[in-house]
Structures are given as C-alpha cells and as structure tokens.
Amino acid sequence: xxxxxxxxxxxxxxxxxxxxxxxxxxxxxxxxxxxxxxxxxxxxxxxxxxxxxxxxxxxxxxxxxxxxxxxxxxxxxxxxxxxxxxxxxxxxxxxxxxxxxxxxxxxxxxxxxxxxxxxxxxxxxxxxxxxxxxxxxxxxxxxxxxxxxxxxxxxxxxxxxxxxxxxxxxxxxxxxxxxxxxxxxxxxxxxxxxxxxxxxxxxxxxxxxxxxxxxxxxxxxxxxxxxxxxxxxxxxxxxxxxxxxxxxxxxxxxxxxxxxxxxxxxxxxxxxxxxxxxxxxxxxxxxxxxxxxxxxxxxxxxxxxxxxxxxxxxxxxxxxxxxxxxxxxxxxxxxxxxxxxxxxxxxxxxxxxxxxxxxxxxxxxxxxxxxxxxxxxxxxxxxxxxxxxxxxxxxxxxxxxxxxxxxxxxxxxxxxxxxxxxxxxxxxxxxxxxxxxxxxxxxxxxxxxxxxxxxxxxxxxxxxxxxxxxxxxxxxxxxxxxxxxxxxxxxxxxxxxxxxxxxxxxxxxxxxxxxxxxxxxxxxxxxxxxxxxxx
Length: 535
Known about the structure:
- The chain is of the alpha/beta class.
- The chain has 20 helices and 17 strands.
- It folds into three domains: 7-216, P-loop containing nucleotide triphosphate hydrolases (Rossmann fold), CATH 3.40.50.300; 219-277, no CATH class; 295-489, 2-Layer Sandwich (Nucleotidyltransferase, domain 5).
- The chain has helices at 7-18, 34-42, 59-73, 86-107, 161-167, 195-201, 203-206, 215-218, 229-233, 242-246, 259-268, 271-277, 295-298, 348-362, 374-382, 395-403, 420-428, 450-464, 476-480, 489-502; strands at 48-52, 78-83, 118-120, 123-125, 131-136, 149-153, 182-187, 209-212, 299-300, 311-316, 323-331, 334-343, 366-369, 387-389, 413-416, 431-434, 439-444.
- The longest helix has 22 residues, at 86-107.
C-alpha cells in the first residue's frame, strides 16, 4: 500500500479500511486531537512522544490503528509492543487481529488472507514482511531486539523505571528505508508516584513531546451545551457542577463517549481522581504517604542555622541505596532541615571526614542513626562523632511523627530547598499498590525512602532518646524544648514567608481560549502564562 501524505487522507483511510473514526477537534488549550496525534506519529513528525489521555480516551485503539497503518504502508517495518502488563499488550495486538485484519481481508482478499499473514499469540507478520511483536517488560525482554518503533501502552502499569531506561535503547532508525526510530508512551494520569508522572517530570531531559487530550476531546458533542440541565444538576463531592467545569466546551466535542457516562463518572469519582484520570490536570494524591506535603508551604530558601538553637543529624546507612545524612535545627516548635548529604556506593570510611567537618562547624549535639547498624555507629563514635542508635520505633510511627508536622496553616516541618532528595521523596513516597485492584494498600512501599528514614531517626531520637543522651551537656528536657529568643527572628522570618506564599496570587490563568464566556473561578488549569504545557 502507498504511504499516506496528508492528515485528511489518513482520516479517510482509517475509516474506510479499519473502521476507526478518531476525534478530530482539540477542544482544550494546548491539547491535540487524537487524529492529530495519529498523524504526528505516522508522519514521524515527532520521534519520542507521550500520549497523555483520559480514561476511555482510545489510546490503545489509536496505537493499534497507527501500528497497522504504518506496518501496511512501510515494508519490512518492525514495531515492538512492550508489555508492562501482558493483558494490556495483548489487547493492542488483539484489536489488530480481531477487528482490523478481518476487515482488511474482506477488502483485499487477494493480498491479506490466512495464507499470507503469519499470526501467532505474540507476533503478526504482514504480507510486506512488516512485523508487530510483543516483548515482556523485563531486562531480558528488552535487551535483544532493535525494532524501528517501540510502544509502551499504559505505562502506568510498569513497575520498574530501570526497565523503561533499558527499553529506550531498543528503537533504531533505518537510514536505508528512511524509517525514524520512535519511542511511544501512552497512559492516563493516575498517581503522583507513578511512571507516567516520572515521564512528565523528566520529559525535557528525555526529549519527550507530550501529546495530551482529555474527556472534552473524546465525549460526544452536547448540542444543548452550556444550558444542559443534566450538567447543572450533576455535582461531585466538592459541590462543583459539571456545567461549571465544562463551561460550554461540550458543544465543540467530537468524540464518542456518551455524556451520560461522563456525568456518571463525574458524580461517582473522587474529584482528585476525576481531575487526574479524566482531565489529566494533576496527579491524584491518593496513595501518597504525605499528601499534605506542599513545597509552597514546607520548602524555604536560604535558611542559615542560628547558634542559639541546637542542631541534630539523622542518618540512614546505605551503599547501593544511598547513605543519607540530614542536619536539623529546632527553632521554637518548628523543625528545620537545612542541609543534606547523599553518597552512593561509598564506604563509611570515605564519608566520615566530611561529617567530621560538619561536626566541627555546626557543633552537632547528636547524630541519630539507623539502629540496625551498630557496627557503623561504633565507627562514627571512634571517629569522635556523638553518634547514637535511634530508638527502635516502628516505621509507621516514625512516618506518623513526620506527617503530624505538615499542617498547612502552621507547618512545623520546613525543608531548605537545597535538600533535593528529601523534597523529592516527601512528594513521591507512597503505599504499595495492589496490582490486581490497582489501588493503594496500607503497607508502606519499600525503597525511595532513604531521606525519609534519616528524618524519622532524627525525630525519634530527639523525642524519645533520653536514655542515650546522658553524655550530652544539657538535659534531654532542655534539648527537646530548646530556648527561644525574644523576639525570635527565625520565627518572624518564617511567618512572613508563609504569609507571602499562602497569600500569593495564582500563577496560572483560567482557561479562556474557547469563544464562550467561562467563569473566572473555573478550576481547570491547563496552560501556563507562557502558553506551555502545565505538567
């Protein structure tokens, strides 16, 4: 088959040969329609892309149509589907097998029939020797093949970022045939700690082009919008009516999802879940261990410790996982983490000289360490550091001690912006996900918690370490409740900063791109002041 040269031809081809009608209107600012996404992929106008779409947004069907069309019009093309979840990858191949191939066989019986297509459970070979195949998302599965295109469908189901990195080495261009290498990711937005969010966070470094669309691109048009009484009557848990969220955009939709289905999901789902999975606005905080952590409230700049207040350190030992040390100062009822040390694959003997310089400079009262490594604590003591084993408190209780200090109205835990690992882990630390149900459990996830452990050891040592603190100059009670200055300049500094931060005007404008009157308080943030994607 001849290659397609125009998006209009692609629209006709998809409907005539595959029976697929892709929505063609980009309703929201900075969004692209599914038909535009197909054309950008097929024409190779973008190479590495992330298709960020709503639940039921037709991502898998779009990718199946792209795979089939590209394979039929590009002889000897190789397209690999990486299976984070085997069922999801087979779903894409099954759409090709059960929907597209029978239709093509009826249209072109002399070209496409059971004698010219090799069709196995995990591989389809077309008459022009193009092949579509599936590989498992394992180091072994992503190590050997080098196809032209690699597709990661529902990347949120992938467990390991390392697999993503390994799979990125697979796609290779074919200069002789003029085929470009492409890595194509697709997913709905779900958890703050998920692979999809990590791709968004690193998109610039990875060179990913984000191609977003949402429910307003994929729902059926609403002729009575913005005056549909159903939309005005349908409200979610926070009291927002769907008509207020829609603000007339349904009139321009050109998709296939029935309005009644959208209204049902809008009413049933938690607002944060709907915003994440149907609008792609922001990841849901569901499953996060510290959902109240907010960099605007809990992260400060340029803090310098004061001599009048005690300084402590929290230490989590590691080697392959990093060794982390945090310096903490207590000012009034606030705990301020102002310095962070992170070392990977370094023995403690190489680290101690730096810590001794810290000790001399900051006069650290106590180093509260991971109690499971008494040998390393002894080594620190031999080097002259006042190191102690933190009280053996269950991790869940240490986490609760951190969480209790995250009140937004009066935060009692502040972190200097230079402590990047701690800030990142406070934002991403989460509970384990039940793979069968796709929902968080009550069990804390293992890993990505080194800085959090260091902070937890410090807090437990300060609050419950009376027995081992007898060597310190002051009594435990005095250390736990340090004297404050009158007036306390640090408290005043922080109070002024919080007032400025919490009262700051919104940094993003309301959506006003459509030719309709939209409410000023529309809670849908999709574009930045510079018109860039807000991811």
